[in-house]
Every structure is written in C-alpha cells, then in structure tokens.
C-alpha cells in the first residue's frame, strides 16, 4: 500500500478518513443515555491553509506560500511526510504531483513535497509575525494547464498549483463569464486591499473584463482629485492598515457539535447542531463556515468541493473581532462503511471573505486564497474525520 508518513503517526493513503493526530478536545459526552445527546467541543486549529494545493491561502509579497498547517516534505527515504508543527515559507515554484507526461495530477495530493524556502519562527517577537499577508494571484479560469483555474496566474510559475478541478467546482455560474474563461487574470493583492466589488469610497474601480484597477474619471475625462470623486459614498470605507501574519494567527474559534432529532424507531440521531464562537478574528469582517465532505479526499466525477455548511453559515465580526454562528445540518455523518457518495462531513473550516461577498450556496468566486482564505480548519493538524458520530437519514413522512 502507498504509505504516507505523518509527523506524529503513519497511516495508509487508503485510510485518510482516520484522524492522524486529533484535535484539542475540550469535552465529549457519550451516546444517548439519561437523556444526554452526544456532544463534542473542540478548539479549531488556526491555519493559513485550506486544501493542500495550492499550499496556502496566503502568500507574502513575493508570492511564496505562507504555510501554517500541513507541510508536505520529503524524508530521508524519499517518501512524502506530513508535518504539522513546522510552519514554512513554500516556494511558489514548487513542483506539484505530476503524471507520466509531466502534467499536473492531483489525484494523489500527497504525491509531491513542497519546496521549502525556510521554516517560519512564530514565537513572540519574531520578525516573521510582521509578514504582510497577500492573496493568491489567479487566472485564467480555463487553459492548457493541469488542475482547475490557474493559481498562481499564468506566467508567474511553470505549474498550476490549484487542485480544485473544473469538473468539481460547485458554482460555475458565478465567474468568470464564458467569454472571459481564457483571458481573465488578477494579480496578488495585500489582503487588506483585495478587490471588493462595488465598493465606493476607496477611489478605485475594477475593469470587469481584465480585473485591472483604475482611477475613475470625471465626465470630462480628467481623473478624480486626490481627495475623492463626486458620487463616492464616504461611509463606504475599508481598512487601511496591512494585515500581518501575527494578527491573522490570533484567530481563536471554538466549535460545539451536538447530535439532535433522535429517532426512537431507528435508534439513531438524524441531524446535528453546530455553534462556532470566534475571538480575535479580523474586525468588521465576513467569514464563511465551510464544510468538507468525504468525497473531497477522493477525486472522482462525484467529487464535492468544500462548500458553505448551510446557506446562512456565516460569521460577521464586530469591531473587536468577535463573532458567533449557529446552524443545523440534516444527516451530516453517514456511516463511513456505507457512504458510497462520500457525503460524510469530515471537516469544518472558517474562511475569511476578502471580497466581503456571500454567494449563498457558493463559498467562492475564484479559488482558494484568491477570495476566501482559511483561518481555522479542523483538518489543519491532520484530523480527516473530526467526529466519531454516525447519523441516519430522517424517515419520510
């Protein structure tokens, strides 16, 4: 069997649904006994990483990936190992898994190690905490490259590092338009300056066809004065200070999962309630709670990309970076033994929406690290199935 070595244990690639290291568990109650429903409380590990490819949802000014989460590296025997306790700066020119013809092939996301430029020091007072974080560059959406839409954008690297295949995207209608699929690109931005479509008040507009920014012009063709443009809404303001890695990693999110809707006939719970409480998140911001299903680990025609846990599973933080959300999911934990469709909920993440947009059932418009950025994820320490729970589907009336 193809063995993948983990920093704290070793598991088979066929058993990735099992926890490698586990989460810091606060408390867990047992099965329904004495009227007590099974409940799990965890502190979600903070991260900069959603999927393994691209390696991170945040980069530095040079476009190199800031990886706080799972680092893929080569051990002394040439095997790829997963390391959880060594944040690293990963070269944007990292070579991803390739097929026999040299094309990108993410069917085995553990098929290649990252090219590590250096490890990061995240101890108090370290200069690495002052790194200004940026978005990934992007585009075009379709072209002669492996994976899905291109991240980083074409021309910046030899390979596409985006494992989100076009066939697996769950929101193809959002963007880009068909006419733009082979032409639209956008650069990397400091995270606090990521494009917010429709924002008025920052004196910047964006060309819908190219993604380039330009200064609005007056009717006579002259550019707006430095102190503003007529018609700009002064109350539409945005953050002016750069976001550093240290500020990003202050995010602290607790998750509570409780099974509900016990069906006495089948002797099982049919739903679960979730609550997330966040502290020290980015203030006055929007986050989306993203669900990862078992099929995400098995690229196939029925592969399901991570998506909002529910239509309303979003966190809006206050001026102190505090936020809370509660939601309910029906039958989120099918028994793995019979989950042929891969619908079991194996992970929950919290992603910062740098575009301040909420698309209902879609978590993103472009791609990981472009307009959504993982801030906390249950899988960030190798836990690929974060609860032991099993639910049953509700009976039809």
Give a structural overview.
This protein is mostly beta strands. The strands form five sheets. A five-stranded antiparallel β-sheet has the order 3-4-12-13-17, with no helix packed on it. Strands 14, 15, 16, 18 and 19 form a five-stranded antiparallel β-sheet that branches. A four-stranded mixed β-sheet has the order 2-1-7-6, with no helix packed on it. A hairpin with a 6-residue loop joins strand 10 and strand 11. The chain is globular and about 70 Å long. 40% of the residues are buried. The N terminus is likely disordered.
Summary tags:
disordered N terminus, 1% helix, mainly beta, five-stranded antiparallel beta sheet, 1 helix
In brief, what are we looking at here?
The chain is 1% helix and 25% strand. With 397 residues, the chain is mainly beta. The strands form 5 sheets. Strands 3-4-12-13-17 form a 5-stranded antiparallel sheet, with no helix packed on it.
């Amino acid at each position: 069997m193809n063995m993948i070595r983990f920093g704290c244990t070793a598991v088979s690639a066929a058993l990735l649904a099992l926890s490698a290291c586990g989460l810091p568990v606060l408390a867990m109650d047992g099965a329904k006994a004495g009227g007590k429903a099974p409940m799990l409380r965890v502190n979600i590990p903070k991260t900069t990483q959603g999927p393994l490819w691209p390696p991170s949802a945040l980069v530095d000014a040079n476009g190199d990936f800031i990886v706080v989460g799972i680092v893929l590296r080569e051990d002394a025997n040439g095997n790829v190992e997963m390391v959880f306790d060594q944040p690293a700066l990963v070269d944007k020119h990292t070579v991803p898994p390739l097929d026999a013809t040299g094309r990108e092939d993410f069917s085995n996301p553990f098929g290649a190690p990252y090219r590590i430029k250096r490890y990061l020091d995240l101890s108090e007072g370290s200069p690495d905490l002052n790194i200004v974080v940026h978005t990934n560059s992007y585009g075009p959406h379709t072209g002669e490259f492996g994976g899905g839409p291109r991240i980083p954008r074409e021309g910046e690297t030899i390979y596409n590092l985006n494992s989100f295949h076009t066939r697996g995207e769950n929101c193809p209608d959002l963007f880009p338009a068909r006419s733009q699929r082979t032409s639209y690109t956008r650069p990397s931005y400091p995270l606090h300056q990521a494009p917010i479509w429709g924002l008025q008040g920052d004196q910047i507009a964006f060309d819908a066809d190219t993604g380039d920014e330009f200064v609005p012009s007056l009717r006579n063709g002259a550019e707006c004065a430095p102190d503003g443009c007529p018609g700009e809404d002064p109350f539409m303001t945005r953050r002016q200070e750069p976001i550093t890695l240290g500020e990003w990693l202050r995010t602290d999110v607790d998750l509570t999962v409780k099974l509900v809707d016990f069906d006495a006939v089948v002797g099982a719970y049919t739903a679960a309630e979730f609550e997330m409480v966040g502290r020290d998140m980015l203030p006055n911001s929007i986050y989306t709670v993203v669900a990862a299903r078992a099929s995400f680990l098995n690229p196939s025609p029925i592969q399901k990309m991570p998506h909002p846990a529910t239509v309303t599973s979003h966190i809006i933080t206050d001026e102190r970076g505090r936020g809370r959300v509660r939601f309910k999911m029906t039958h989120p934990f099918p028994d793995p033994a019979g989950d042929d469709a891969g619908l079991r909920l194996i992970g929950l993440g919290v992603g910062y929406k740098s575009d301040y947009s909420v698309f209902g059932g879609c978590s993103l418009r472009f791609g990981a690290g472009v307009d959504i950025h993982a801030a906390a994820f249950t899988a960030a320490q190798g836990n690929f199935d974060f609860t032991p729970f099993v639910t049953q589907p509700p009976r039809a009336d």
